[in-house]
Amino acid sequence: MLTKVAIVGRPNVGKSALFNRLIGRKKAITHEMPGTTRDRNDHKVSWRDKNFIVTDTAGWSMDISVFSKDMSHQLDIAIEKSDIVLFVVDGKMGVHPTDVQIAQQIRLKRKKAVLVVNKIDTQAEEIKGYEFYELGFDDAVFVSANHGRSIHDLLDKIWENIKYDRKVKNTRETLKIILVGKPNVGKSSFINTVAKEERCIVHDIPGTTRDSLAVCIQNNGKEYILTDTAGLHRGSKPKDDMEYLSNLSTDYAIEDADVAILIADASQGIGETEVKIARLLLEKKKPVIVTINKWDLIEEKEEAAKYFTEQLRERIKFMNWADIIFTSAKTGQRLDRIFQEAELVFKQYSKELTKEEFNEVIRDALARKPYTSKGRTLKLKEYAQTASKPPVFIFSVNDRNLVHFSYKRFLENCLRAKFGFHGTPIVLKFRNYYKKMN
Question: pTM for this one?
Answer without folding.
Answer: 0.68
